[in-house]
Amino acid sequence: MLFNSGEFLFFFIFVYGLYLLSSHRWQNYLLLAASYLFYGSWDWRFLILILFSTVVDYTAAIYIDRAREKGIEKRAKAWLLLSVSTNLGLLGFFKYYNFFAGSLMDLAGRFGVSLSPFTLNIILPAGISFYTFQAMSYTIDVYRGRQTPCKSLPDFTLFVAFFPQLMAGPIERAKELLPQIENPRRVTQEDLIDGGWLILWGLFKKVFIADNLAPYTYWAFTMNRAQTSSDLYIASIAFVIRFYCDFSGYSDMALGLGRFFGVRLHRNFYLPYFSSNPTEFWNRWHITLSRWFRDYVYGPIRKEFSAYGAKTWAVLPTMFLVGLWHGANWTFVVWGTLWGAALLVHRLIQPRLASFEERNPGTGRFMKWGGTILTFHMWIVIGLFFVNTNVHESFSDVCLLFSGFSASRYSKKDLYTVLYYSWPLVLMQFAQNRYGDLDVLKRLSLPLRVVIYCALLVLLMVNGAEHEQEFIYFQF
Predict the structure, then answer these.
(1) Residue from 369, 367, 371, 372 nearest 356 by CA
(2) Regions of the chain where pLDDT drops below 70
(3) Which of 52, 275, 400, 457 could share a disulfide with 281, CB 3.0–4.6 Å?
(4) What is the pLDDT of residue 115?
(5) In this predicted model, what pLDDT tens digit does every residue of 40-68 receive, in sequence order?
(6) Active-site residue identified among 24, 326, 392, 467
(7) What is the pTM of this model?
(8) What pLDDT sits at residue 459?
(9) CB distance 269 to 416 below 8 Å
């Protein structure tokens, strides 16, 4: 059941109508039932996994708290280990078993050792990377004393499975989402207006921009492969725009749906393509995943190995795991590792850049926009390891991209196509960056805002992609 489908529209209208007529407690029961119905519509077997993970984490948190009250640290740590190992075990088995089994067979083959195939026919449960991380953060925070355990199993189950953000985030923290579930909510006029805009803008980014660019990027990277450097460059720009609009479009719709229920979810993107360096980019891109790895991976590594300068190099293993989180393929591992290297280099040269800017005050604006262009193209180059299915193809594309200018007779037409579907995003993003406000339309008069809303709706109806397409991050 996709957000951009008629099926979901009828589902939402029915659920929302009942929601408005219910008391707080019954609203939670309704949202829980709706969330499990929504998730089960993909495959009812997925419900067994998410329910099992939820019960384990709920129970572990309670017993961690009880052990702490009695001063039994070993028991508290044992319950934490049970929670973390359960979540990572489910994630590792369903997402990575075949990847590591296949890699082991390939490695053995390189040394002349033939292993019998031991891969399994496993279905990857949708959204498992998101809800396992969200549940894990809860038990870790309870163990650290930063979160009190939830006493209500239905409330905690809704925290894990809340359907607007279940499939692709944002990855919420218990201290931010659980209080909104446990306490009565009030839907205001502002919630409806802001939520409606987020849903419209997210749907537009997904259906008009991302889905219309999808066939072009599929052709360039999968079907015929780009043959010239200009074709590859245009295709890469199309991919990073499509990728951003697809994922941020889902996130916007998730935030908008949450607002309709009186729930405020965490913003997941803040104009990432205006970032002037890799560090800023990862503070603006997939924000909730970045802070998850910062708090639960990077932070502990820094603390544990502080004597060995981990503040500098800890980004490498962290980003390696970020890449692996994205998918069971060596391309994602290389993608994450390259970003780790970029972050490391930036940290090493940042003091010199700051010193240069301090000595030359007039260069600040130039350095900012130069850094923005460089960071955007860094994403294009590193992104070749994300869009391709194997490392060899990715390296071939990198070589082609830097082989010198060459164009085909389709290059100009392809460029116009990308520009046509991207211009609304470019105009909106420059306005948002100019005023430092994502809801920049609030600055306009009501009639002008209505005109823009109607224009977006017309573009959706006239030029929206004909076929429903899944969100890219559903595969993660």
Answers:
(1) 367
(2) 102-103, 105-121, 223-226, 409, 465-468, 475-476
(3) 275
(4) 60
(5) 888 888 899 999 999 999 999 999 999 98
(6) 326
(7) 0.90
(8) 87
(9) no
Find out whether 28 and 155 touch, Cβ atoms under 8 Å: yes
Instruction: Please name the amino acid found at residue 96.
Output: Y
Contact predicate 347/282, CB 8 Å: no
Both tokens assigned to 319? 């980003």
Sign of CA dihedral 237, 243, 244, 246: positive
CB atoms within 10 A of CB 390: 12
* Interatomic CA distance for residues 89 and 184, integer angstroms: 35
Residues 249 and 269 sit within 8 Å (Cβ to Cβ):
no
HEC profile for 184-196? CCCCCHHHHHHHH
Q: Which of 23, 20, 46, 21 is CA-nearest to residue 35? A: 46
Q: Calculate the CA dihedral of residues 255, 261, 262, 267 and round it to 10 degrees.
A: -10
Q: For residue 121, what are its two tokens?
A: 């026919």
Residue 256: what pLDDT? 94
- Token readout for 250 is 């889902």
* Catalytic residue list contains 326: yes
Classify 258 as helix, strand or coil.
helix
Q: Where are the domains of the chain?
A: 6-185, 191-475
Q: Say if CB 213 and CB 388 are below 8 A apart.
A: no
Q: Among candidates 95, 98, 114, which has minimal Cα distance to 106?
A: 114
Residue keyed to tokens 């029915």? 14
Crossing angle of helices 391-401 and 364-387, in 10° steps, is 140
pLDDT digits (tens, 9 = 90+) for 115-164: 656 566 677 777 888 999 999 999 999 999 999 999 999 999 999 999 99
Q: What letter does residue 265 receive in the DSSP assignment?
A: P
58: burial class by Cβ within 10 Å (0-12, 13-18, 19+)?
buried
CA torsion sign for 100, 102, 105, 111 is negative
Q: What is the distance, to the nearest Å, from the Cα of residue 63 to the centroid of all Cα atoms in its chain?
A: 31
* Rounded distance between C-alpha atoms, residue 242 and residue 240, angstroms: 5
What pLDDT sits at residue 426?
Answer: 92
Instruction: With beta carbons less than 8 A apart as the criterion, state whether 459 and 200 touch.
Output: no
Q: Show the beta-strand stretches assigned E in 284-412.
A: none
3-state secondary structure of 289: helix
